[in-house]
Write a structure and sequence with these properties.
single chain; alpha/beta; Udp-n-acetylmuramoylalanyl-d-glutamate--2,6- Diaminopimelate Ligase, Chain: A, domain 1; UDP-N-acetylmuramoyl-L-alanine:D-glutamate ligase; 3 domains; 9-stranded mixed beta sheet; 6-stranded mixed beta sheet; 32% helix; globular
């Protein structure tokens, strides 16, 4: 069930209800029914309400005419900008458009009887959110934030899109700095809060990892009275997080993982290249499940999913069965067959962002993949960003995990530290950036290889993935840096 379609048996909003929720003033002729909420005319659907948000690089008011041409039901604009709008346009005039979106999100939460799950953590938020959408969706209409909409505009947008009839709601909460989660969770007001893990992600913005844990713990401040939290019991910061949860008044603290004493505990596990089979004890109830994504880290997060589903009142068996349908979101493990010199190969796209923890997890998945014939396990890695003064050392520290691959290619100034820390036999090549690395990698591939590509978004490994896929799908003789444009 798509997040935007859950429980849509009535209009999402009416123009009158939207105006009342946002403190806005109606102008022009309104159709009444509103089917969705949009802040981007490129994805706007007929019948959506368009919020003309003023951002750092663009002003949504410049796109109101385009939104109306695409049959927006209404456009939410600043009061002072109304005279600039097309004559007769259906408008809601407000003092501040982003503030109006936040107000609409709070109104959506206020009118909802859904059981709400909030998800944060240094790694695994989006996959956990997608798994919850499946698990809870097996039990009742479920709404979830789209993509990685977990910031100051993504959270209220996701809330505003929640149909009144939803049985469950799942919202991802992210942060780069301390103090960012607290206002988001006050909007979401979850019944269950999940913290997937705490790792040195965005460490350049914090004095230490403990400070990151404290920032993640902000999620506890918005949990509804009588609510619960699910925390990674295997993480060294569990006790710190659990203490913060109790200090916030949360009486039910559930640990998940493999550590003895975890209430959502992994009992047995069989890892396969494209998925896993596991048995778990979820708060005293034994359940077996399959998950359609590879890796021990994925299975561990499914323990949190199942615990949260049980705490939310969903059918645990239905939730467990639904996990077999979990597939990789774009850039998080998507597998593409290639036709390279000497036969078929496999490309694993892990290019959607990177940090030391997710890099190690992706390398473990790569090294667990079987190869055929003379094939090799090849890692193609770009810089991990936002690590501050710890960056160079954290890249070098990956040498043990990366060295388990047969061949490693590196792009970027930080990845040079890893490249130089590798044994000579594992060094495939280094380049200053991803476009320059492309021909180096392409030249070395052969039949039977499994190639995993990963790096922070700013390192542009995603275009490298697309370039490799295009090159070897189409069997083009040459492909240059223009593929990155």
């Amino acid at each position: 069930m798509a997040p935007e379609q859950a429980g849509e048996t009535e209009p999402l909003w009416t123009a009158q209800a939207l105006a009342a929720a946002t403190g806005g003033t109606l102008a022009g002729a309104h159709a009444g029914a509103i089917g969705g909420i949009s802040i981007d005319t490129r994805t706007l659907q007929p019948g959506d309400a368009f919020f003309a948000i003023r951002g750092e690089n663009s002003d949504g008011h410049a796109y109101v005419a385009s939104a109306l041409e695409r049959q927006a039901a209404v456009c939410v604009v600043e009061r002072g900008r109304v005279p600039e709008m097309p004559a007769g346009a259906a408008l809601v005039a407000v003092d501040d458009v982003l503030g109006a979106l936040e107000a609409l999100g709070r109104a959506a939460r206020g009118r909802s009887d859904a059981r709400i799950i909030g998800v944060t953590g240094s790694v695994g938020k989006t996959t956990t959110k997608e798994a919850l959408l499946l698990a809870l969706g097996a039990d009742g209409p479920t709404h979830a934030s789209a993509a990685s909409y977990n910031n100051h505009w993504g959270v209220p947008l996701s809330l505003a899109r929640m149909p009144r009839a939803s049985t469950y709601g799942v919202f991802e909460l992210g942060m780069n700095h301390a103090g960012e989660i607290a206002p988001l969770v006050r909007m979401v007001r979850p019944h269950v809060a999940i913290v997937t893990t705490v790792e040195p992600v965005h460490i350049g913005q914090f004095p230490n990892v403990e400070a990151i844990a404290d920032a993640k713990a902000e999620i506890f401040t918005g949990v509804e009275p009588g609510g619960a939290t699910v925390i990674n019991r295997d993480n060294p910061h569990f006790e710190r997080l659990a203490a913060a949860a109790r200090a916030a008044g949360i009486g039910i603290v559930i640990g998940f993982g493999e550590t003895p004493g975890a209430q959502a505990r992994l009992v047995s596990l069989a890892l396969q290249p494209s998925g896993s089979t596991a048995m778990a004890d979820i708060m005293g109830e034994t359940v077996s499940f399959k998950v359609g994504l590879p890796g021990r880290h994925i299975v561990q997060n499914m323990l949190a999913v199942l615990a949260a589903a049980k705490l939310a009142g969903a059918d645990l068996c239905l939730a467990a069965l639904a996990l077999s349908s979990l597939g990789p979101p774009p850039g998080r493990g998507v597998r593409t067959p290639l036709a390279v010199k000497g036969g078929p190969a496999l490309l694993i796209d892990e290019s959607y962002n990177a940090n030391p923890a997710s890099m190690r997890a992706a390398l473990a998945v790569l090294c667990a993949n079987p190869v055929t014939g003379r094939g090799r396990r090849i890692a193609v890695l770009g810089d991990m960003l936002e690590l501050g003064p710890f960056g160079e050392q954290m890249h070098a520290d990956l040498a043990d995990a990366a060295g388990a691959a047969d061949l490693v290619f590196c792009a970027g100034p930080l990845m040079r530290a890893l490249f130089e820390a590798l044994p000579e036999s594992r060094r495939g090549g280094w380049a200053p950036d991803a476009p320059a690395l492309l021909p180096v990698v392409a030249e070395r591939l052969r039949g039977g290889d499994v190639i995993m590509v990963k790096g922070s978004n700013g390192s542009r490994m995603g275009p490298l993935v697309r370039a490799l896929a295009e090159r070897f799908r189409a069997e083009v003789e040459t492909l240059g840096v223009d593929a990155f444009e």
